[in-house]
Amino acid sequence: MGGLFLAAWRLVLKRAASDRLIVGAAFITVLLAAALLAAGPIYSEAVALSGLERTLEDAPARDSGLEVSGRIPLEDASSTDEYFKLLDQLPPKERLNPRLTQRARKYAYHFFFRRMIPLSFMEPHPEGLYRLEIQGIDQLLPGREPGLDVICDGILQGTEFIYPSERIAHQADGSMLEVAS
């Protein structure tokens, strides 16, 4: 039995040697196919990440669903002309009373700490734009980035774009820690 097996291998090697070009081409084809299959998951993650970067970069601000406006605590402008009329009244001639001052402080807190949604992976760029600093697609999963969760919930479930800053402590290293309320 062993002799038959050894004879079969000799025949295979002899035929492979005589057809070395075909065997070499088959080897290279199998090697390239294995490399392509291995690169598939890496390529798909890179495409998804670059697609997200491109979409965020190209999206006009008006389509973001976020509101940025200039407000005077007493009145809201309903048109551009009305807004400029309100601006012409600044600064006010007398100080605001304590009730309006408290209202303005609450609005400022709400606007600067709850409506400004931080995203730890958005880094300022010297050209004035932002750069995405994402190490992998896993960083974008629900629960990993509270600001992104607020934005996604607002888009998908129609909730308000309000960041719960009073429940999330920002640490010195840039990480965020949920604080029990």
Question: How would you write the strand order of the largest sheet?
Answer: 1-2
Total DSSP E strands: 4
Helix content: 40-55%
Ranges where pLDDT stays below 50 over 5 or more residues in a row are 66-73
Structural classification: mainly alpha
Using only CA atoms, what is the Rg?
A: 31 Å
Characteristics:
7% strand, two-stranded antiparallel ribbon, 5 helices
Protein described:
- There is one protein chain.
- This protein is mainly alpha-helical and 181 residues long.
- It folds into 2 domains: 38 residues; 127 residues, no CATH class.
- It is 52% helix and 7% strand.
- The chain has 5 helices and 4 strands; from the N terminus they run ααααββαββ.
- The strands form 2 sheets. The chain has a two-stranded antiparallel ribbon with strand order 1-2. A two-stranded antiparallel ribbon has the order 3-4.
- A hairpin with a 5-residue loop joins β1 and β2.
- α1 packs across α2.
- The radius of gyration is 31 Å and the shape is rod-shaped.
- It starts with a helix and ends with a strand.
Describe what is shown at a glance.
Helix content is 52%, strand content 7%. The protein is mainly alpha-helical and 181 residues long.
